[in-house]
Amino acid sequence: MTVAQDTLDMLMAAGVPAISQTLFGLGIMNAFIPGLAAANPQTCVFAGPACTLRAIPMREDIRTAIAEGRLPNPHRQALAGVKAGEVIITDIGDIPRISLFGDLIGTHLANRGVAAIVTDGGVADLAALADVPLPVFSAGSAPVPASGRVVVVDIRQPISCRGVPVYDGDIVVGDRAGVVVVPVDLADTVARKALEKEKLEAFLLERLQAGAPLEGTYPPDAETLAAYRARG
To answer: Is the pLDDT of residue 232 over 80?
Structure first.
């Protein structure tokens, strides 16, 4: 299912908190991915379809076969299959001490038009990644290659990223508040509801800053809602 750019733009404008709250109201209660931080909070806003990647613990004979060239490098094969505009999102078993990505791979993916990287592991070269024009969310600095610990086994299959289910093609949205996953068939509905929620809350904040009482302002009563609608 293809999601229109207008929908992606609305999701980015609405922001992760409004999206997460909107999903909760629609019965999707496990969509926000906890414990991840942006390499660069100033350039971390993104939205795009998920390209899921899963790894499992490495077995010694597989590691040897890859090192000797008897098996292709599955990590590189998986990255080659990512399309422009997609968000790479991983399930490596929630191991923050190892990394599948650093500034060199990040630069390559940015040049290919990949929208973002979201990984439940760490990243190498965290400070350098902050200068790459690609949003990257991770569990933190981990200048330890993952190749000795895990092996990529799946791409474009359902995964768990820090306990959040992600299906290939789901819409992944990130900003300074973190990362949230939107089921693709709900993307347009969530975008419109979340953006309206964000506009209403901006109006309520203005009233509170002007000295309005909390009672009747948040949550808004009928009078406050009427004032909001009248403002257009």
So the answer is: no
Considering the chain, tell me which residue range(s) the CATH 3.50.30.40 domain(s) occupy: 29-182
Residue 148 has pLDDT above 80, yes or no: yes
Residue type for position 227: A
The CA–CA distances, whole Å, from 146 to 96, 97, 104, 122, 160 equal 10, 9, 15, 9, 18
Residue 154 CA to residue 66 CA, distance in Å, equals 16
Check residue 203 and give left, alpha or beta (phi > 0: left; psi -120 to 50: alpha). alpha
pLDDT over 90 at 27, yes or no:
yes
Of 36, 144, 151, nearest to 99 (Cα)?
A: 144
How remote is the C-alpha of 221 from its chain's centroid? 34
- Give the fold, CATH level 3, of 29-182: Glucose Oxidase; domain 1 (3.50.30)
**8 Å CB contact between 119 and 141:** no
Q: What is the pLDDT of residue 205?
A: 97
Contact 197, 14 (CB under 8 A): yes
